[in-house]
Task: inverse folding
């Protein structure tokens, strides 16, 4: 038994801490119960179902019972009247009887997170000293009124419950310093306001007090599916209320965003391009709580595994991994090109396979859970099991597939009816309506008018200050304080109407009012759109970029002080090493911007591209979205980076100076060079594997490479593998895409004489030719 006598005496008692955590205890050992001098008792990570006899320990001030198997609340706790700190998190408690908390007048800290609570007893209000209360991951439908009585409360956490509203009065308590209510599907204030923290919530309620409220029913509607499935046709036909034939030349580039009203619902349509190269940006734009319209071309669909996987399964997996609480409405297009029976069979096949997929996933999660339970040390895996619990509880709803012919408006109209019925169904969309102070809507329509009146340029790139003064100047409301206005912009950013990447020091001063133009910027760099129909079948990003590089005209090259031979080298280095030089990207972008016939775009070309000593917005954005890795950054790599310190935020230093070259991990091909440097895996390697359910999300390893290479010293990078050096030790990070998909991090064991002798590292200079211009 670990017993620590505390250093000082507190009154006549010698204070004692008893730590009996992780001992698989099922009952409290008698020797603990006999020692009334115990003041701190740590019993976390055991298997306790009850704690009979604990009432003897009348001097207890701290009791930690987290991660046990408590189902019934241990009522004897009521008699521990000295208790100041109580941990009961990660148990299975369903109810707390009345008459417990009114005894615990000294209680300052109470952690009840990750239980099954749907109610909090009203006598909690008696705990006048309570400063910390954690009720996250429970089943609360209302925030208990009693919390309002806790005037000394400094920290309150209610994330992952089923709350719909937060009481305004709670935020009048000026003692409250930390608060989070994430993942609740709140209506008042909406989650997008809550995400802004206490300050924004307070400003929201103060605006509600001084103005009228609007009740907004807005549904983010994402059109996903393979290339050429008919997403844009459907989206545009719905919006224009007539059939719209989308020419192949007008295919979606990146994402197109538009809004449409059906009755009192406002649908924010996000039409994602289906071409593979755009998947890279999906992680930025696919956001929770959406209606996902999964478009499948039924005419080209064949009832076989590979077809299902690429046209449906891939997307369902993607949605499951990114937004597992969404509603998916599959729609089968091109039915005019199929027979009636064909449509019926394909619909049946798709629905059956989706169901099998979801069932298999559930079984897989259950199997994992059983494996954990069978483990001799389940306490060690309690984090994993609560994560598995969370995954099992997510509920991706897949509605019945609707077959339509996009060339027939009757079908479009009836599809619109289906969408409306789905969002009106409270079982499918319980919390569509959001309450907003009228000023939020007023600011939004002022921005729309600014765009309409051409006060904001077509490209929609404006400085925050211009934006703020434009809104205040043109809005038909009393002048708003800058801070309040910024909070409203933050809200609009979170719902996706504008984009403002405040977290990036390089982008904090700029608002992108037209998110679709942002995508056009990507198009102008790596995501290059080909007009050539012949190449649309198998799109190959590398090939396209190489072609684009080769087509840069001499005049543009000369502007960059480059020659025709440089162009060839740029193309060859991109092809072989997935590296694109800064100069090459500038030339590419300039060339494409020149082709856009807009004087306004030309005006901001410099801002987009940057100069010799200044990075343009495009590069900052691509870096921010982790599309590429800036090579040879001007800041030295920092082994003491604060990202590695517990609790610190993982972030890269931003620099104003453009990098010399950029690595695009998604375009890497071979692994031979990595294998050559790493050699065979060895038994003595230290190996950590991170498993993914059901698979590694598309584009995720790409971002792992970017993170790893920005914090360690990159050595050799290949497709799905990268070899870095961390503190003199070599690490291999690799993606295993076989059955149980995982990311493996291997560290080579240093030799007897330490690292230095063991590692004969070629200096970065040896590979310098890749940077060589
Ligand atoms: N006959 C017929 N043609 C359709 C139907 N739906 C779409 N199309 C045509 O299919 C082609 C591709 O449609 P898009 O709407 O551009 O497809 P998308 O899914 O947006 O494609 P990406 O932009 O590449 O992601 C266009 O030529 C459409 O006119 C349909 O129901 N019947």
Result:
């Amino acid at each position: 038994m670990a017993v620590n006598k505390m250093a000082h005496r507190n009154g006549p008692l010698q204070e004692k801490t008893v730590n009996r955590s992780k001992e698989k205890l099922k009952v409290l050992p008698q020797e603990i119960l006999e020692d009334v001098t115990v003041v701190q008792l740590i019993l976390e990570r055991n298997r306790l179902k009850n704690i009979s006899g604990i009432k003897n320990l009348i001097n207890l001030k701290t009791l930690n019972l987290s991660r046990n198997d408590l189902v019934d609340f241990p009522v004897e706790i009521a008699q521990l009247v000295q208790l100041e700190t109580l941990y009961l998190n990660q148990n299975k408690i369903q109810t707390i009887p009345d008459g417990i908390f009114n005894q615990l007048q000294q209680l300052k800290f109470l952690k009840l997170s990750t239980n099954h609570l749907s109610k909090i007893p009203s006598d909690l209000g008696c705990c006048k000293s309570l400063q910390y209360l954690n009720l996250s991951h429970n089943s609360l439908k209302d925030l208990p009124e009693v919390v309002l009585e806790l005037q000394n409360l400094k920290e309150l956490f209610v994330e992952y419950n089923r709350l719909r509203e937060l009481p305004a009065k709670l935020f009048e308590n000026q003692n409250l310093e930390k608060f989070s209510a994430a993942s609740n599907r709140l209506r008042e204030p909406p989650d997008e306001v809550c995400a802004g923290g206490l300050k924004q919530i307070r400003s929201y309620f103060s605006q509600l007090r001084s103005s009228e409220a609007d009740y907004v029913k807005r549904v983010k509607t994402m059109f996903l599916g393979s290339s050429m499935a008919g997403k844009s046709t459907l989206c545009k036909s719905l919006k224009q209320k007539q059939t719209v034939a989308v020419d192949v030349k007008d295919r979606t580039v990146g994402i197109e965003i538009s809004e449409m009203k059906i009755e009192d619902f406002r649908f924010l349509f996000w039409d994602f391009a289906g071409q593979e190269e755009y998947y890279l940006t999906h992680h930025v734009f696919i956001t929770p709580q959406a209606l996902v319209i999964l478009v499948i071309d039924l005419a080209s669909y064949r009832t076989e595994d590979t077809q299902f996987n690429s046209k449906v399964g891939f997307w369902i997996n993607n949605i499951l991994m990114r937004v597992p609480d969404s509603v998916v409405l599959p729609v089968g297009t091109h039915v005019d090109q199929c027979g009636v029976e064909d449509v019926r069979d394909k619909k049946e096949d798709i629905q059956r396979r989706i169901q099998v997929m979801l069932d298999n996933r559930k079984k897989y999660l259950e199997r994992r859970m059983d494996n954990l339970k069978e483990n001799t040390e389940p306490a060690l895996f309690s984090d994993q099991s609560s994560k598995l619990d969370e995954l099992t509880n997510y509920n991706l709803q897949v509605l019945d597939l609707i077959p339509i012919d996009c060339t027939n408006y009757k079908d479009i109209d009836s599809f619109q009816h289906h969408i409306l019925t789905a969002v009106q169904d409270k079982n499918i969309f319980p919390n569509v309506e959001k309450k907003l102070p009228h000023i939020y809507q007023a600011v939004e329509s002022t921005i729309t008018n600014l765009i309409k009146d051409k006060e904001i340029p077509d490209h929609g790139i404006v400085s925050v200050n211009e934006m703020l003064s434009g809104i205040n100047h043109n809005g038909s409301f009393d002048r708003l304080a800058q801070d309040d206005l910024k909070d409203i912009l933050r809200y609009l950013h979170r719902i996706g109407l504008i984009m403002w990447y405040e977290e990036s020091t390089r982008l904090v001063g700029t608002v992108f009012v037209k998110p679709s133009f942002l995508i056009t910027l990507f198009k102008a760099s790596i995501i290059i759109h080909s007009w050539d129909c012949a190449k649309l079948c198998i799109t190959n990003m590398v090939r396209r970029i190489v072609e684009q590089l080769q087509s840069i005209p001499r005049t543009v090259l000369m502007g960059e002080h480059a020659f025709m031979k440089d162009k060839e080298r740029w193309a060859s280095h991109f092809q072989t090493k997935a590296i694109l030089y800064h100069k090459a990207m500038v030339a590419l972008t300039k060339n494409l911007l020149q082709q856009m016939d807009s004087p306004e775009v030309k005006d901001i070309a410099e801002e987009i591209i940057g100069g010799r000593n200044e990075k343009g917005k495009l590069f900052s954005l691509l870096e921010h979205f982790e599309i590429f890795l800036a090579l040879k950054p001007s800041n030295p790599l920092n082994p003491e980076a604060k990202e590695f310190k517990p609790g610190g935020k993982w972030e890269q230093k931003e620099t104003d100076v453009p990098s010399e070259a950029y690595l695009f991990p998604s375009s890497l091909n071979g692994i031979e060079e990595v294998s050559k440097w790493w050699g065979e895996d060895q038994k003595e390697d230290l190996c950590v594997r991170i498993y993914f359910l059901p698979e590694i999300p598309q584009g995720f390893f790409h971002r792992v490479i970017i993170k790893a290479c920005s914090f360690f010293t990159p050595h050799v990078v290949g497709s799905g593998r990268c070899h870095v050096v961390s503190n003199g030790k070599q690490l291999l990070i690799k993606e295993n895409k076989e059955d149980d998909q995982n990311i493996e991090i291997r560290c080579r064991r240093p030799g007897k004489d330490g690292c230095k002798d063991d590692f004969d590292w070629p200096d970065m200079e040896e590979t310098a030719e890749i940077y060589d211009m």
In short: The chain is about 35% helix and 15% strand. The chain has five domains: 2-209, 225-431, 434-513, 525-636, 668-770.
